Amino acid sequence: QVHLVESGGGSVQPGGSLRLSCVASRMVYIMGWYRQAPGKEREWVAHITHGGSTNYADSVKDRFTISRDKNTTWFQLDNLKPEDTAIYYCYGQVFAVGAPYWGQGTQVTVSS
Quick count: other Cβ atoms within 10 Å of Cβ 30? Predict the structure, then answer.
């Protein structure tokens, strides 16, 4: 069992920045983020492996940055757009494949 606790999020104007963080209760191989906008399915956004390899969805590449130190991951969201508005969920996978564990979600709202 893995427990994940997120913090950060909030409301910003377009072009603004936010920083999310997530702490896992034990070491996991992959930590990452999904998001779910109102009326849409949950979509994968980014992940980082224990070794530091990262991957991003095309929609956020060059705007969002994921980093990690042991059981903690940070997600820097820059140049935010209204379409980034969603609940952001941290996830962790103990192994490279397998079911993820989820955090409780944190709201990000981008609006003028």
Answer: 21
